[in-house]
Amino acid sequence: MRWQRRGFAVGVCGGLASLSGGLLAAEPPAANAPRPAGRGRERGAERTAIRAEVVQSPAWVWRNGVQQPLQPGDSLPQGTEVQTGPGATLALRMPEGSVVYLGEQTRMAVQQLMVTRSTQGELSLSTLLRLVDGFVRYATTPLAKAVGRRDVRIGLRTSTLGIRGTDVWAMTDAVHDAACLFEGRIGLTTQQGELALEQPSAFWAWFFERAPTPVGVATPAELAKFMASVEVRPGQGLAVENGVWRVELSPSADYRMALRNAVALRQSGYAAHVWERAASGRFAVEIRHLATQADAEALLARVRSTPGLEQLEGRVGRLA
């Protein structure tokens, strides 16, 4: 059974959609087939952008002022922003291999990202990630620690964290900034001066309307809470680039109806596309790349509990 995808680009403020013309082949590319631009890289090529590795929707990305649903494999160069909705999480891969985890209701801007390699082959990374709101964890892998020079900073509302071979959690909201060290060391530049977190479980917080407090130690219960706020939860709607499960929603003989449903899903943070069954001429809206059947079923349940999307009927299945 052959399906074809209808291509379209959607901006939240850009009306229904603008058709990109033509049909895109529905069959997944062979392992050695060329990937679309921006969705991968050649062996040996330098990766100079952050990459969305795991996406638990709803989630969005802003590029040049245009909002789109985020999907696994998306590239996040300097100047982009990402945002998660209720119950959503992301795992983002840095160019040198570290992982950035974002919790629900979080917005982060890639304010600076520079990757260079010297003539001797040494990799240098300089980045500033600005946490606008929400929760973040930055976990440095052993390989990332070993490569070249790194200048990694995470900006909060009133402070900036300097990463030094670190596993660290941080958050910001309208009333306070906070950071907790799991491993390594971080330097904190705050409005009260310079601080350092150097011992595992070291914890710092500043409530903006209170006097600053000294660095303390997080309790086991607090550590568990911090970890849970950015946890990637298998079976709860995770999408990955090589995921083979899909959610199919409200098949219809009316292309415009299918398109309206896809636009509503995309505006709600789900990377939906319209696919046409060539033999019957019917159209379905699909969300693809779910990691497992449980993830597909969980995503379908989440979609149908989203205000404005409750009327959509759906089922899950494997990609052919």
Short description:
The protein is mainly beta. The protein contains four helices and 22 strands. The strands form two sheets. It has a 16-stranded mixed sheet that branches.
Descriptive overview:
- The protein has 320 residues and is mostly beta strands.
- The chain has 4 helices and 22 strands.
- The protein has helices spanning 142-146, 220-229, 255-267, 293-304; strands spanning 3-9, 18-25, 50-56, 59-63, 66-69, 75-76, 81-84, 89-93, 99-102, 107-117, 123-139, 149-155, 159-172, 176-190, 193-197, 202-207, 216-217, 238-240, 245-252, 272-277, 283-290, 314-318.
Name some characteristics of this structure.
single chain, 320 residues, mainly beta, 16-stranded mixed beta sheet, 6-stranded antiparallel beta sheet, 4 helices, 22 strands
Distance between the termini: 8 Å
Number of strand elements? 22
Number of helices: 4
Mean pLDDT: 83
What percentage of residues falls in helices of 4 or more residues?
A: 10-25%
Low-confidence stretches: 7-46
For the biggest sheet, the summary is: 16 strands, mixed
Shape: elongated
Radius of gyration: 21 Å
Which percent band covers the strand fraction? over 45%
Structural class call reads mainly beta
Task: Output the helix-strand order.
Answer: EEEEEEEEEEEHEEEEEEHEEHEEHE
